[in-house]
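FORM 7B - TANDEM STRUCTURE REPORT

SECTION 1: FIRST PROTEIN
SEQUENCE AND TOKENS:
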Amino acid sequence: MKAVVYCRVSTDKETQETSLIRQKQELVKLAAEYQLTVVACIQEQESGYSIDRDGIFKMLEIFSQKGQIVY
């Protein structure tokens, strides 16, 4: 099965940058444990308040591609 990794922090502070790296590492590791193939890794430094975020739209685009993701 395929998976998309989505990592997000709410600010662009330097400490948040390491959080993005940790999130990606942990989620890629988790995907491997479940034998999932990561087809995309989306990272954002945006507030979660708004759903109008490029990363969300990129995920939806990937999901809409027939046969790309099973969820």
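SECTION 2: SECOND PROTEIN
SEQUENCE AND TOKENS:
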Amino acid sequence: MSFPDERDYLSLARNLADSGAFSLDGDRPTAFRPPGFPAFLSVTAWFDDSLRALRVANALLLGGVVLVTGLTARRLSTGAAGVLAAAVVALTPVTVFTASKLYPQTLATLLLVASVAVVLAVERVASSPSQWRRSVLLAGSSGLLLAALTLTVPNHGVVLVVAVGWLGWRLRRAAVMPVLVLLVAFAIPIAAWGARNQNAFGEFVPISTNSGVNLLLGNNDGAGGGTGTNVDVRAEIVAANRSSDDEVGRDRYLRDRAVDWIVADPVRWARLYLAKVVNAFAVREDLATDAQERSTAQTILVAVTYLPVLALFLVRPFLVRMVPFRRGEGLLIGVFWANVLATAVAFTRIRFRVPLDPLMVVVVAILVVGLCARWVPQWMPEGEGAVVSGTGDEAQDWTAGRRASATP
């Protein structure tokens, strides 16, 4: 394995499957990595703990991502948008590459698109008093999915804030019950993992003990917009090891050093933060494990497949008069940007944005199908070629004269 992250996840999964212990060395408990991805891998490892079997299990998640992405686009728009979104996600090189490695991003992608799809379903049914049972069930499911997502990649916990805010905006008073159920369902797994950490370390650790080093890697004198982990913080790590014998104390020490650096010069930090936000959309990053001849070809491939989709996503709000927003698009856009901004607090990398790509693709698929329906309706399948009209609260749908909200 080329990447240390993979080795850690493999060790955690095997130890969890063998002894039920969340440990890197099979002896001492740890919370250095979030538990979601190792827990998923441990299910496969219980039957077959070979590296190949675990990678196959991880890669199979991509099929679920493609399916849920296509169904979400179809639900928000048309069958043509669903097919287009599913095809683009399935053929995105970075997504496929990430699925072939033991990275948590593929599992996080499935959990993210699934949780967004269920939140959309909550909004559809919660306003109907006759469907309150279904609303409660969906809200509980979305809370559990969001908890699993947060326990897999903690940065994505911001999705909870966006989802609750969006439901409150869309449903007003009708949002009270589903939001409460969602929050309770979210809190239960988080509290359970926190209780495990309290028992293991004598301190409450909500998710993991690597937040300090991650924050420091992205906020120090040597950090840049795209440096990622390629900065030298060995002196701080040595000092952290001297300051505490346990990983919770070391995590706290490193986090404090990062916060001190941020507070010392907020203007400098703001410039760095903006550079990291821009880097979230990079098509190349320099890793010590990359071969130069491979990286050039990869850069071209990523640029050709990613930049056009990104450009369409960025111009989407400016084309709302031509293609009105579909009901639910606002949630997808809000989740996308909230995650980008949250990730940039530490540092951004290409694979960190993989869970967000399907949301972007759905928005772009809606736009492309809408433009085709307006400009070249003969290209659209029968029943999906109606010209879009209207920019108010209601706009003519693209299929069979149905009505759809133009607000996101």
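SECTION 3: OBSERVATIONS ON SECOND PROTEIN
The first strand starts at residue 394 and ends at 396.
Confidence is low (pLDDT under 50) at residues 288-293, 385-406.

SECTION 4: SIGNATURE
Preparer initials: ____
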